[in-house]
From TrEMBL, chain A:
CDD domains: Tryptophan_synthase_alpha. The active site is at E66, D77. Transmembrane segments: none annotated. It comes from Nitratidesulfovibrio oxamicus. The alpha subunit is responsible for the aldol cleavage of indoleglycerol phosphate to indole and glyceraldehyde 3-phosphate. Keywords: Amino-acid biosynthesis, Aromatic amino acid biosynthesis, Lyase, Tryptophan biosynthesis. Belongs to the TrpA family. This is Tryptophan synthase alpha chain. Tetramer of two alpha and two beta chains. Its EC number is 4.2.1.20.
UniProtKB/TrEMBL annotation, chain B:
One of its GO terms (molecular function) is tryptophan synthase activity. PROSITE patterns: TRP_SYNTHASE_BETA. The beta subunit is responsible for the synthesis of L-tryptophan from indole and L-serine. It comes from Nitratidesulfovibrio oxamicus. Pathway: Amino-acid biosynthesis; L-tryptophan biosynthesis; L-tryptophan from chorismate: step 5/5. The modification N6-(pyridoxal phosphate)lysine is found at K84. Its EC number is 4.2.1.20. InterPro entries: Trp_synth_b_CS (IPR006653), Trp_synth_beta (IPR006654), Trp_synth_beta/beta-like (IPR023026), TrpB-like_PALP (IPR001926), TrpB-like_PALP_sf (IPR036052). It comes from the Bacteria. This is Tryptophan synthase beta chain. Its cofactor is pyridoxal 5'-phosphate. It is an enzyme of class 4 (lyase). Keywords: Amino-acid biosynthesis, Aromatic amino acid biosynthesis, Lyase, Pyridoxal phosphate, Tryptophan biosynthesis.
Amino acid sequence: MSAAIHTDMNDMLPEAPVSRLEARVTAANAAGRPALVPFLTAGFPTLDRFWDEMDGLDRGGADVIEIGVPFSDPVADGPVVEAASLRALENGVTLRWILDGLKARAGRYDAELVLMGYYNPFLQYGLENLAADAAAAGVAGFIVPDLPLEEDGEMRALLAARGIDLIALVGPNTSEERMAEYAAVASGYVYVVSVLGITGVREGLPPEVPQTLARARKAFRLPLALGFGIKEPKQLEGFPDRPDAVVFGSALLRHIDAGNSAESFLAAWK
Amino acid sequence: MKKGYFGEFGGQFVPELLMPPLRELEAAMRDILPSDKFRAELDDLLRNFAGRETPLTACPTLSEELGVHLWLKREDLLHTGAHKVNNTLGQALLAKYMGKTALVAETGAGQHGVATAAAAARLGLECVVYMGATDVVRQAPNVMRMKLLGAKVVPVQSGTKTLKDAINEALRYWIAQQDSTHYCFGTAAGPHPFPTLVRDLQSVIGRETRAQMLERTGRLPDMVVACVGGGSNAIGMFHPFVDDASVRIVGVEAAGTGEPGCYNSAPINLGRPGVLHGQMTMLLQDGDGQIEPSHSVSAGLDYPGVGPEHAHLGAIGRVTYGMATDSQALEAFQALTRREGIIPALESSHALAWVLNNRDKLPAGGHVVVNLSGRGDKDMEIVREVLFREGELA
């Protein structure tokens, strides 16, 4: 088939349904603000308090909640998320516990839900079962930090069949060509990693963030979520192009660990 | 076959931020590694700095007892005491050609750390070594050697505080420092292209063995045996023999204390396929996919995974993967020391232990080569402790 005919056929197809995640971020932007995307490790700080804090984040205006699925060897994470992950495992958290808990609470959250975790626990659960159970639990997307484009085909297809997005991650060293490869398959939103590094709070964001956002803007038609090192709104001041969504993980976990509520963390962003 | 895979195993399961340096390394392997200039320089380092070629030593006493011709490939005689330096010299030189100014490495027992530090010192590169906090205590003399060689040794306090956590931390460091730094990975594992790169650099072991056997006996060995942790000494020995159907190949995993359900380092025998440290491979893991702690008396085998090419060679049946326990390895250690006058590393003792405990599987009257991957000097403390406890040492 020639490229020209291929394009014509695409033009005739109905638009793919907009993903729930994309729609949610776009709605926040229409209201004149970035979508708020807190990250909370499942079962942190305790099994019960986790569900309380989920309610708090939902009440507090989270647009999307990224639920961290703990793994013994979280190689893209800094000390705060790793410690939370290991504590959650000590608390007995499993992927099944998370999915069962979400199923029992289906329809409870106004926020959209994303599961973020490393590949092996998902793989051992069984990718087909995972897609089915995640759909039943109301999960709208997955983020798998150790699953680059070369390896993500099977999981992406199984999730897509259930209307679940596999979120692409790009960063300061991702070329425009590479972003274009992701753009061909990506859905939901794009996770733009702010720094050549791991998760964790940084005082200032690196100076190349605007360039990274600009490259991603060119490559993707999807909303851009900025994460890694984000704590407070003033970090984004002076950006020529504001991200469509902001992700906070380590800062929120520290806030909760210090005895504060997740809900109060979101107040600064509203 | 998919790029970077050995059958079902291998791949590149890493954060997107690591894909550019992995691709940069693939390009360097393609463009720099085969060049005459690089080859000549590496060959000179291996010969005149590290001490290649290593001897192939016949073992008259044990041969007599076992009814086979037993040979040892003497990687223990290399500079820094083990086969590790074959890999670190190659990677350090490659890093230099790539324009990098520093190396980062993980280490368990400290042998790879020492070999990396030595290569870095020789070639004028900075060196940072991540080492589990538990191992820093267990392997104090190697920490001292690394520091003397100018490396910065960073104790890793997270997780199980051993090799797997040191790898996590080294990968994190590499994400941030990829412009200036090459990750000098210590074994034939991890994301593509490391399993291939390390295998190619270690294959000098098998190539030499092959030539030495042909010269000394006029034939290929009937069996080659090596211990398998991550599996770099083993794949280096095995790879040049894989296409020789007449050569039986045996890898030996560490069974730990040996009772059912004990902690071990035998993922090919006792684990399941899964993803860790950038690779699909055989892993020790629980039902939820969390990585289990490993154990072996030999710190160099103490890893819950294994290089993907070994997982593949096991799956297709080309290589037999056996096991040896801590106590069998210690017995083999003593046997070689007393009967042949060679003090082997506890890692290599596992390979020998398999031979001593599987006489019925040996080719009677045939030639068996054991890769003696390292020397036992580093293991004096642990051997003293165990033998003293067992009353064999006053």
